[in-house]
Design brief:
Radius of gyration: 13 Å
Structural class: alpha+beta
Largest sheet: 3 strands, antiparallel
Distance between the termini: 34 Å
Strand content: 25-35%
Order of helices and strands: EEEHH
Number of strands: 3
Number of helices: 2
Helix content: 10-25%
Length: 69
Amino acid sequence: MSMPSPTTAVPWICSRCGAPLTLGKIEIAYLGSAFPVELWHCRDCGLVLIPEDLALGRMVEVEKMLEDK
């Protein structure tokens, strides 16, 4: 499933509280390092939508890099 663009009429809906998700910068932290990333997230409860391609692609690469330090 592809991610909707910021101009999509119907945004993602939060599965936790039912509020619409908004696209914006959030901070992802791992092993003491934090990275700003633009992702869909719920402003009400803080739930973040991490797309599969990001979780299994770039995030895995960063995890391996940080663990090798």
